[in-house]
Amino acid sequence: MRRILEHLGRSVPEPAARKGAESNFLSLRAEAEKGFAENMLPMTLIKILRPVKRFLQRAKRKLLSNSTIRNLRDELNNEIEFEDLRSHEIMLADAIRMNAYHAAIRRNVNAGDVVVDLGTGTGILSMFAAQQNPKVVHSIDYSKVISVAERIASENHFGNIAFHHINSRRFILDESVDVILHEQIGSALLNEGMVEKTLDLKKRLLKKSGKILPGKFELFLEPVCVKNDYRIPYLWETRTHGIDFSSAKDSPESEKCKLANYNWHPNPRSAVDYFLCDAAPILAFDLNEIGDPTEIPKTMSASRVVRRHGRMDGFCLYFRVIFDAEVEFDTSPFSPRTHWDNLLFRSESRQWHEGDAISYTLEIKDRLDIESWIVRVEGGAPGVCPSDGQMSGFRVK
User: Fold this and answer.
1) How far apart are CA 8 and CA 4, in angstroms?
2) Which of 21, 156, 180, 389 has the maximal Cβ count within 10 Å?
3) 3 by DSSP, 3-state: which?
4) Which domain holds residue 35?
Protein backbone atom coordinates (compact mmCIF):
# COMPACT_ATOMS: atom_id res chain seq x y z
CA MET A 1 0.00 0.00 0.00
CA ARG A 2 2.83 2.39 0.90
CA ARG A 3 4.51 1.77 -2.47
CA ILE A 4 1.26 2.38 -4.36
CA LEU A 5 0.72 5.72 -2.64
CA GLU A 6 4.32 6.74 -3.22
CA HIS A 7 3.98 5.85 -6.89
CA LEU A 8 0.87 8.03 -7.11
CA GLY A 9 2.82 10.91 -5.59
CA ARG A 10 0.79 11.04 -2.42
CA SER A 11 2.08 11.31 1.11
CA VAL A 12 2.05 8.23 3.28
CA PRO A 13 -0.65 8.62 5.95
CA GLU A 14 -0.27 8.04 9.65
CA PRO A 15 -1.07 4.54 11.00
CA ALA A 16 -4.76 5.20 11.75
CA ALA A 17 -5.39 6.85 8.41
CA ARG A 18 -3.27 4.22 6.68
CA LYS A 19 -5.43 1.46 8.13
CA GLY A 20 -8.56 3.07 6.62
CA ALA A 21 -6.82 3.57 3.29
CA GLU A 22 -5.75 -0.07 3.21
CA SER A 23 -9.33 -1.14 3.92
CA ASN A 24 -10.59 0.98 1.02
CA PHE A 25 -7.92 -0.41 -1.25
CA LEU A 26 -8.83 -4.01 -0.39
CA SER A 27 -12.49 -3.24 -1.04
CA LEU A 28 -11.69 -1.73 -4.43
CA ARG A 29 -9.48 -4.68 -5.32
CA ALA A 30 -12.29 -7.13 -4.42
CA GLU A 31 -14.71 -5.23 -6.63
CA ALA A 32 -12.21 -5.22 -9.50
CA GLU A 33 -11.63 -8.97 -9.18
CA LYS A 34 -15.38 -9.58 -9.11
CA GLY A 35 -15.86 -7.47 -12.24
CA PHE A 36 -13.05 -9.29 -14.01
CA ALA A 37 -14.61 -12.66 -13.14
CA GLU A 38 -18.02 -11.50 -14.37
CA ASN A 39 -16.53 -10.33 -17.67
CA MET A 40 -14.53 -13.50 -18.15
CA LEU A 41 -17.57 -15.73 -17.59
CA PRO A 42 -19.46 -14.59 -20.71
CA MET A 43 -16.25 -14.90 -22.77
CA THR A 44 -15.80 -18.47 -21.57
CA LEU A 45 -19.43 -19.28 -22.30
CA ILE A 46 -19.13 -17.83 -25.79
CA LYS A 47 -16.17 -20.10 -26.54
CA ILE A 48 -18.13 -23.11 -25.30
CA LEU A 49 -21.34 -22.16 -27.12
CA ARG A 50 -19.82 -21.41 -30.54
CA PRO A 51 -19.49 -25.09 -31.55
CA VAL A 52 -22.91 -25.74 -30.00
CA LYS A 53 -24.36 -22.99 -32.20
CA ARG A 54 -22.77 -24.49 -35.31
CA PHE A 55 -24.14 -27.91 -34.38
CA LEU A 56 -27.64 -26.47 -33.89
CA GLN A 57 -27.48 -24.74 -37.28
CA ARG A 58 -26.60 -28.04 -38.95
CA ALA A 59 -29.35 -29.79 -36.97
CA LYS A 60 -31.84 -27.10 -38.05
CA ARG A 61 -31.07 -27.70 -41.72
CA LYS A 62 -31.45 -31.45 -41.21
CA LEU A 63 -34.74 -31.14 -39.34
CA LEU A 64 -36.21 -28.72 -41.87
CA SER A 65 -35.68 -31.27 -44.61
CA ASN A 66 -38.73 -33.00 -43.06
CA SER A 67 -41.97 -31.50 -44.42
CA THR A 68 -43.92 -32.06 -41.19
CA ILE A 69 -41.34 -30.12 -39.16
CA ARG A 70 -41.25 -27.37 -41.79
CA ASN A 71 -45.02 -27.02 -41.53
CA LEU A 72 -44.79 -26.84 -37.73
CA ARG A 73 -42.15 -24.13 -37.98
CA ASP A 74 -44.36 -22.25 -40.41
CA GLU A 75 -47.31 -22.41 -38.01
CA LEU A 76 -45.24 -21.15 -35.08
CA ASN A 77 -43.67 -18.33 -37.09
CA ASN A 78 -47.05 -17.15 -38.33
CA GLU A 79 -48.58 -17.32 -34.88
CA ILE A 80 -45.79 -15.23 -33.38
CA GLU A 81 -45.39 -12.69 -36.19
CA PHE A 82 -49.03 -12.05 -37.01
CA GLU A 83 -50.29 -11.77 -33.46
CA ASP A 84 -48.40 -8.47 -33.35
CA LEU A 85 -51.07 -5.86 -34.02
CA ARG A 86 -48.46 -3.41 -35.31
CA SER A 87 -47.67 -5.69 -38.26
CA HIS A 88 -51.32 -5.48 -39.31
CA GLU A 89 -51.35 -1.71 -38.88
CA ILE A 90 -48.35 -1.47 -41.22
CA MET A 91 -50.14 -3.56 -43.86
CA LEU A 92 -53.38 -1.59 -43.54
CA ALA A 93 -51.44 1.66 -43.98
CA ASP A 94 -50.01 0.43 -47.30
CA ALA A 95 -52.24 2.27 -49.79
CA ILE A 96 -50.78 0.50 -52.84
CA ARG A 97 -51.59 -2.90 -51.33
CA MET A 98 -55.02 -1.93 -50.06
CA ASN A 99 -56.20 -0.24 -53.25
CA ALA A 100 -55.02 -3.11 -55.44
CA TYR A 101 -56.79 -5.74 -53.34
CA HIS A 102 -59.98 -3.70 -53.13
CA ALA A 103 -60.10 -3.16 -56.90
CA ALA A 104 -59.27 -6.80 -57.68
CA ILE A 105 -61.89 -8.17 -55.29
CA ARG A 106 -64.55 -5.91 -56.76
CA ARG A 107 -63.67 -7.23 -60.23
CA ASN A 108 -63.37 -10.92 -59.35
CA VAL A 109 -65.78 -11.77 -56.50
CA ASN A 110 -69.40 -12.12 -57.58
CA ALA A 111 -72.77 -12.33 -55.86
CA GLY A 112 -73.45 -15.85 -54.59
CA ASP A 113 -69.79 -16.92 -54.53
CA VAL A 114 -68.29 -19.06 -51.80
CA VAL A 115 -65.03 -17.40 -50.81
CA VAL A 116 -62.14 -18.47 -48.58
CA ASP A 117 -59.83 -15.81 -47.14
CA LEU A 118 -56.55 -17.53 -46.25
CA GLY A 119 -54.77 -15.81 -43.35
CA THR A 120 -57.45 -13.20 -42.75
CA GLY A 121 -55.58 -11.16 -40.11
CA THR A 122 -57.78 -8.19 -39.24
CA GLY A 123 -60.34 -9.41 -41.78
CA ILE A 124 -59.99 -6.60 -44.28
CA LEU A 125 -59.98 -8.81 -47.41
CA SER A 126 -62.96 -10.75 -46.09
CA MET A 127 -64.87 -7.54 -45.60
CA PHE A 128 -63.95 -6.31 -49.09
CA ALA A 129 -65.31 -9.62 -50.42
CA ALA A 130 -68.42 -9.46 -48.23
CA GLN A 131 -69.31 -6.12 -49.85
CA GLN A 132 -69.79 -8.03 -53.14
CA ASN A 133 -72.73 -10.01 -51.69
CA PRO A 134 -71.22 -13.50 -51.84
CA LYS A 135 -73.04 -16.48 -50.34
CA VAL A 136 -70.41 -16.67 -47.59
CA VAL A 137 -66.82 -15.72 -46.86
CA HIS A 138 -64.85 -18.21 -44.79
CA SER A 139 -62.10 -16.32 -42.94
CA ILE A 140 -59.24 -18.54 -41.75
CA ASP A 141 -56.44 -17.59 -39.41
CA TYR A 142 -54.33 -19.57 -36.98
CA SER A 143 -53.39 -16.58 -34.80
CA LYS A 144 -55.58 -15.05 -32.13
CA VAL A 145 -55.80 -11.77 -34.04
CA ILE A 146 -58.81 -13.38 -35.72
CA SER A 147 -60.83 -12.39 -32.65
CA VAL A 148 -60.06 -8.76 -33.50
CA ALA A 149 -61.26 -9.36 -37.06
CA GLU A 150 -64.50 -10.91 -35.80
CA ARG A 151 -65.23 -7.89 -33.61
CA ILE A 152 -64.53 -5.44 -36.46
CA ALA A 153 -66.76 -7.38 -38.87
CA SER A 154 -69.58 -7.45 -36.31
CA GLU A 155 -69.31 -3.71 -35.66
CA ASN A 156 -69.48 -3.11 -39.43
CA HIS A 157 -72.61 -5.31 -39.68
CA PHE A 158 -71.20 -8.03 -41.93
CA GLY A 159 -73.39 -11.09 -41.48
CA ASN A 160 -71.99 -13.20 -44.32
CA ILE A 161 -68.51 -13.87 -42.87
CA ALA A 162 -67.72 -17.08 -40.97
CA PHE A 163 -64.54 -16.99 -38.91
CA HIS A 164 -62.40 -20.11 -38.36
CA HIS A 165 -59.55 -20.10 -35.84
CA ILE A 166 -57.69 -23.00 -37.43
CA ASN A 167 -54.65 -23.88 -39.50
CA SER A 168 -55.60 -23.87 -43.17
CA ARG A 169 -54.28 -27.41 -43.64
CA ARG A 170 -56.92 -28.65 -41.22
CA PHE A 171 -59.75 -26.54 -42.64
CA ILE A 172 -62.51 -28.52 -44.38
CA LEU A 173 -65.83 -27.58 -46.01
CA ASP A 174 -68.79 -29.55 -47.30
CA GLU A 175 -69.02 -27.37 -50.41
CA SER A 176 -66.62 -26.25 -53.12
CA VAL A 177 -65.13 -22.77 -53.27
CA ASP A 178 -65.28 -20.17 -56.05
CA VAL A 179 -62.46 -17.87 -54.91
CA ILE A 180 -59.45 -18.29 -52.63
CA LEU A 181 -58.26 -14.89 -51.42
CA HIS A 182 -54.85 -14.57 -49.82
CA GLU A 183 -52.03 -12.22 -48.99
CA GLN A 184 -49.38 -14.75 -47.98
CA ILE A 185 -46.63 -12.66 -49.55
CA GLY A 186 -43.27 -12.34 -47.81
CA SER A 187 -40.51 -9.82 -48.46
CA ALA A 188 -38.93 -12.45 -50.75
CA LEU A 189 -42.36 -13.34 -52.22
CA LEU A 190 -42.14 -17.07 -51.46
CA ASN A 191 -40.99 -17.05 -47.85
CA GLU A 192 -44.40 -17.02 -46.09
CA GLY A 193 -45.61 -20.35 -47.44
CA MET A 194 -47.89 -18.85 -50.08
CA VAL A 195 -47.31 -21.59 -52.64
CA GLU A 196 -47.74 -24.49 -50.24
CA LYS A 197 -50.83 -23.13 -48.48
CA THR A 198 -52.78 -21.90 -51.48
CA LEU A 199 -52.15 -25.04 -53.52
CA ASP A 200 -53.22 -27.21 -50.58
CA LEU A 201 -56.59 -25.41 -50.42
CA LYS A 202 -56.88 -25.44 -54.20
CA LYS A 203 -56.40 -29.19 -54.33
CA ARG A 204 -58.99 -29.87 -51.63
CA LEU A 205 -61.61 -27.14 -51.99
CA LEU A 206 -61.47 -25.05 -55.15
CA LYS A 207 -63.89 -25.62 -58.03
CA LYS A 208 -62.34 -26.36 -61.42
CA SER A 209 -63.77 -23.03 -62.57
CA GLY A 210 -62.58 -21.27 -59.39
CA LYS A 211 -59.65 -18.90 -59.00
CA ILE A 212 -56.87 -17.98 -56.62
CA LEU A 213 -56.61 -14.22 -56.13
CA PRO A 214 -53.95 -13.05 -56.67
CA GLY A 215 -52.59 -15.90 -58.78
CA LYS A 216 -49.82 -14.53 -60.99
CA PHE A 217 -46.42 -13.51 -59.63
CA GLU A 218 -43.04 -12.46 -60.96
CA LEU A 219 -39.80 -12.51 -58.99
CA PHE A 220 -36.98 -10.14 -59.95
CA LEU A 221 -33.31 -10.33 -59.02
CA GLU A 222 -31.63 -7.30 -60.57
CA PRO A 223 -27.92 -6.32 -60.64
CA VAL A 224 -27.67 -2.94 -58.91
CA CYS A 225 -25.30 -0.14 -58.09
CA VAL A 226 -25.82 1.01 -54.51
CA LYS A 227 -25.25 4.63 -53.53
CA ASN A 228 -21.94 5.09 -51.76
CA ASP A 229 -23.62 6.34 -48.58
CA TYR A 230 -25.45 2.99 -48.26
CA ARG A 231 -22.82 0.62 -49.62
CA ILE A 232 -21.37 -1.91 -47.18
CA PRO A 233 -18.26 -3.54 -48.69
CA TYR A 234 -17.09 -6.93 -47.52
CA LEU A 235 -14.43 -6.72 -44.84
CA TRP A 236 -11.67 -7.82 -47.25
CA GLU A 237 -12.68 -5.13 -49.76
CA THR A 238 -12.15 -2.38 -47.22
CA ARG A 239 -9.27 0.08 -47.50
CA THR A 240 -9.46 2.91 -45.02
CA HIS A 241 -6.79 5.41 -43.91
CA GLY A 242 -3.99 3.17 -45.10
CA ILE A 243 -5.31 -0.01 -43.45
CA ASP A 244 -5.72 -3.04 -45.74
CA PHE A 245 -8.21 -5.77 -44.73
CA SER A 246 -7.67 -8.04 -47.74
CA SER A 247 -6.08 -10.79 -45.64
CA ALA A 248 -9.50 -11.47 -44.11
CA LYS A 249 -10.74 -12.92 -47.41
CA ASP A 250 -11.43 -16.67 -47.14
CA SER A 251 -9.56 -16.82 -43.84
CA PRO A 252 -10.64 -19.44 -41.27
CA GLU A 253 -11.07 -16.68 -38.72
CA SER A 254 -13.48 -14.78 -40.97
CA GLU A 255 -15.48 -17.87 -41.86
CA LYS A 256 -16.16 -18.54 -38.18
CA CYS A 257 -17.70 -15.09 -37.80
CA LYS A 258 -20.17 -15.21 -40.68
CA LEU A 259 -23.81 -15.67 -39.71
CA ALA A 260 -26.23 -17.62 -41.87
CA ASN A 261 -27.75 -14.43 -43.33
CA TYR A 262 -24.36 -12.88 -44.05
CA ASN A 263 -25.10 -11.98 -47.68
CA TRP A 264 -28.80 -11.06 -47.51
CA HIS A 265 -30.09 -7.97 -45.76
CA PRO A 266 -33.03 -5.53 -46.00
CA ASN A 267 -32.23 -2.69 -48.35
CA PRO A 268 -33.75 0.81 -48.08
CA ARG A 269 -35.41 1.82 -51.34
CA SER A 270 -33.36 4.99 -51.38
CA ALA A 271 -30.13 2.95 -51.29
CA VAL A 272 -30.36 1.74 -54.90
CA ASP A 273 -28.73 4.13 -57.37
CA TYR A 274 -29.63 2.28 -60.56
CA PHE A 275 -30.12 -1.09 -62.26
CA LEU A 276 -27.31 -2.09 -64.59
CA CYS A 277 -29.67 -4.03 -66.91
CA ASP A 278 -33.25 -3.86 -68.13
CA ALA A 279 -35.39 -5.49 -65.46
CA ALA A 280 -36.92 -8.88 -66.28
CA PRO A 281 -38.32 -11.60 -64.00
CA ILE A 282 -36.06 -14.50 -63.12
CA LEU A 283 -39.18 -16.48 -62.14
CA ALA A 284 -42.85 -16.23 -63.18
CA PHE A 285 -45.71 -18.51 -62.19
CA ASP A 286 -49.50 -18.66 -61.94
CA LEU A 287 -51.04 -20.49 -58.99
CA ASN A 288 -54.16 -21.02 -61.10
CA GLU A 289 -52.17 -23.01 -63.64
CA ILE A 290 -50.14 -25.31 -61.36
CA GLY A 291 -51.17 -28.00 -58.91
CA ASP A 292 -48.09 -28.80 -56.84
CA PRO A 293 -45.30 -26.73 -55.25
CA THR A 294 -42.70 -28.88 -57.02
CA GLU A 295 -43.76 -27.30 -60.31
CA ILE A 296 -42.01 -24.09 -59.25
CA PRO A 297 -38.28 -24.48 -59.93
CA LYS A 298 -35.77 -24.05 -57.15
CA THR A 299 -32.89 -23.12 -59.46
CA MET A 300 -33.20 -20.24 -61.92
CA SER A 301 -30.59 -18.72 -64.23
CA ALA A 302 -30.41 -15.44 -66.12
CA SER A 303 -28.05 -13.69 -68.51
CA ARG A 304 -28.57 -9.94 -68.79
CA VAL A 305 -26.98 -7.37 -71.08
CA VAL A 306 -25.56 -4.32 -69.30
CA ARG A 307 -27.35 -1.16 -70.41
CA ARG A 308 -25.66 1.22 -67.99
CA HIS A 309 -22.01 0.70 -67.15
CA GLY A 310 -20.78 0.99 -63.60
CA ARG A 311 -20.07 -0.82 -60.36
CA MET A 312 -22.28 -3.72 -59.33
CA ASP A 313 -22.67 -4.10 -55.57
CA GLY A 314 -25.16 -6.95 -55.53
CA PHE A 315 -28.68 -7.96 -56.54
CA CYS A 316 -31.96 -6.33 -55.55
CA LEU A 317 -34.80 -8.79 -54.93
CA TYR A 318 -38.37 -7.59 -55.51
CA PHE A 319 -41.60 -8.91 -57.03
CA ARG A 320 -44.74 -8.14 -59.01
CA VAL A 321 -48.25 -9.23 -58.00
CA ILE A 322 -50.75 -9.61 -60.88
CA PHE A 323 -54.45 -9.95 -60.05
CA ASP A 324 -55.82 -9.69 -63.59
CA ALA A 325 -55.28 -7.74 -66.80
CA GLU A 326 -56.12 -4.45 -65.07
CA VAL A 327 -54.81 -4.71 -61.51
CA GLU A 328 -51.20 -5.28 -60.42
CA PHE A 329 -48.42 -3.73 -58.36
CA ASP A 330 -44.73 -4.31 -57.80
CA THR A 331 -42.18 -3.61 -55.09
CA SER A 332 -39.33 -2.26 -57.23
CA PRO A 333 -37.27 0.43 -55.48
CA PHE A 334 -38.27 2.73 -58.35
CA SER A 335 -42.03 2.10 -58.02
CA PRO A 336 -44.42 3.69 -55.49
CA ARG A 337 -43.55 2.51 -51.99
CA THR A 338 -45.21 -0.49 -50.35
CA HIS A 339 -44.65 -1.94 -46.88
CA TRP A 340 -42.51 -4.77 -48.28
CA ASP A 341 -38.77 -4.21 -47.93
CA ASN A 342 -36.41 -4.82 -50.79
CA LEU A 343 -33.72 -7.38 -50.09
CA LEU A 344 -30.14 -6.98 -51.26
CA PHE A 345 -27.87 -9.91 -51.94
CA ARG A 346 -24.38 -8.52 -51.59
CA SER A 347 -21.67 -9.47 -54.05
CA GLU A 348 -18.06 -8.42 -54.24
CA SER A 349 -17.76 -5.12 -56.04
CA ARG A 350 -17.06 -5.38 -59.76
CA GLN A 351 -17.17 -3.15 -62.82
CA TRP A 352 -19.33 -3.88 -65.86
CA HIS A 353 -19.39 -2.08 -69.20
CA GLU A 354 -22.25 -1.45 -71.58
CA GLY A 355 -22.82 -4.52 -73.73
CA ASP A 356 -21.33 -6.97 -71.20
CA ALA A 357 -23.42 -9.99 -70.24
CA ILE A 358 -24.01 -10.69 -66.55
CA SER A 359 -24.80 -14.38 -65.99
CA TYR A 360 -26.06 -15.53 -62.62
CA THR A 361 -28.05 -18.26 -60.90
CA LEU A 362 -30.46 -18.19 -57.97
CA GLU A 363 -30.71 -21.41 -55.98
CA ILE A 364 -33.58 -21.70 -53.48
CA LYS A 365 -32.95 -24.60 -51.13
CA ASP A 366 -35.88 -23.79 -48.85
CA ARG A 367 -38.52 -21.31 -50.01
CA LEU A 368 -39.41 -20.40 -46.43
CA ASP A 369 -35.82 -19.71 -45.35
CA ILE A 370 -34.20 -16.78 -47.16
CA GLU A 371 -30.90 -17.66 -45.50
CA SER A 372 -30.75 -20.77 -47.69
CA TRP A 373 -31.04 -18.80 -50.96
CA ILE A 374 -27.76 -18.63 -52.88
CA VAL A 375 -26.77 -16.37 -55.78
CA ARG A 376 -23.85 -17.38 -57.99
CA VAL A 377 -22.30 -14.91 -60.43
CA GLU A 378 -20.00 -15.36 -63.39
CA GLY A 379 -17.49 -12.89 -64.84
CA GLY A 380 -16.91 -9.21 -64.22
CA ALA A 381 -13.80 -7.15 -63.62
CA PRO A 382 -12.59 -6.20 -60.14
CA GLY A 383 -14.47 -3.36 -58.57
CA VAL A 384 -13.26 -0.14 -57.00
CA CYS A 385 -13.56 0.31 -53.27
CA PRO A 386 -14.70 3.93 -52.84
CA SER A 387 -13.00 4.41 -49.48
CA ASP A 388 -9.39 4.60 -50.76
CA GLY A 389 -9.94 4.02 -54.45
CA GLN A 390 -7.88 0.81 -54.48
CA MET A 391 -8.68 -2.32 -56.43
CA SER A 392 -10.40 -5.23 -54.74
CA GLY A 393 -10.46 -8.82 -55.93
CA PHE A 394 -13.40 -10.81 -57.26
CA ARG A 395 -14.01 -14.47 -56.74
CA VAL A 396 -16.49 -16.37 -58.90
CA LYS A 397 -18.63 -18.52 -56.67
Assistant:
1) 6
2) 180
3) helix
4) 13-63
